[in-house]
Amino acid sequence: MNYVALKxxxxxxxxxxxxxxxxxxxxxxxxxxxxxxxxxxIWSQSGISNLNVQIWVTDPNISQVExxxxxxxxxxxxxxxxxxxxxxxxxxxxxxxxxxxxxxxHRVSLVGLDAATMIGRPARLFExxxxxxxxxxxxxxxxxxxxxxxxPDVVKVGAVFEINDKKARVVGIANIQKDFxxxxxxxxxxxxxxxxxxxERRVLSYVLAKAKDGxxxxxxxxxxxxxxxLGAFTQEEFGMKTIQWVLKNTGIGVNFGTTIVLGFIVGMxxxxxxxxxFTVENLKQFGALKAxxxxxxxxxxxxxxxxxxxxxxxxxxxxxxATLFGYVTxxxxxxxxxxxxxxxxxxxxxxxxxxxxxxxISIVKxxxxxxxxxxx
Length: 376
Description:
alpha+beta; single chain; 6-stranded mixed beta barrel
């Protein structure tokens, strides 16, 4: 009976293609929008993930990583004194303006690292060495600075520009995750970053720390909070806090959520209606099978087989189209697009739900079918 069911499905080519298109479009829409949404969330916490440290010590009222609230300079020593802390290093983070040799101004995200340890440095450099930051006026820019500030002929190793009328000399090009605000990053030492930035009473943005081996990171962050009265988060906690702030204070979650729900509803409507029509137009065939002694359960299995067959094919086509879209449009950081296995799994479950509902509607019709219909 399985062969007969598939023969009926593929034999009505117009209905089959309509079903396939509806399901594939729904899958593509959900995966595409879900991948862009998650890509944006990854970008929003890139200020944390690019530094890749275990513990962030912050102002207790901080909301997200880009909302810098300077803390006292003595915080580094206080964090180092907390039991379970292996090391702690200062970090400067702020937004300043860079003036290029051709007179153009660009906003840049200035990151000042501890000169002795370079804690928080970029994991990979396209050109140069991070240790060269210890030389006079040295800075490392990311690949997005090269792209946005005039191209590789303007921003390259050896190029000179100004930050707050002070000389900055490029000694390296870093490879980092793009920022949510699309602002290029400039790395230098902590003291030089403070000299570049406008004067403030407090200049320490964050303290980066690591727990000793064998001591749970969560336990160390709890101790830091209790002993210093400051905020202390693991990298994952601070990243999630930033994502929650973005979802709460922007319309990103609602916009993408609405599109994804619409994709699900449209897919269900098209598949349900088309599959129902497909069943109605084949009632005589089903009636003939019933008249020959085929049970309703067997016919229901045939309907389910047809629904899940076209569903799985539509899932594959939809995933393929969404992946192709991401490959074509998201190259070189042009578009945030992160396709994850949990998303694909969730879409698969949703598709099974669409197919199940569609098949159920048809099975109800089939259960009421009189075998005599074949003689009318």
